[in-house]
Amino acid sequence: MLAAVGSLLRLLPGRTFRCAPWAPREAPRRRVAAPSSQGLLRYSSSGTPSGSGPQGPAGKVHKVPAEHKPSQFDKKILLWTGRFKAMEDIPSRIPPEMIDAARNKARVKACYIMIGLTIIACFAVIASAKRAVERHESLTSWNLAKKAKWREEAALAAQAKAK
Question: Where are the domains of the chain?
Answer without folding.
Answer: 1-30, 72-136
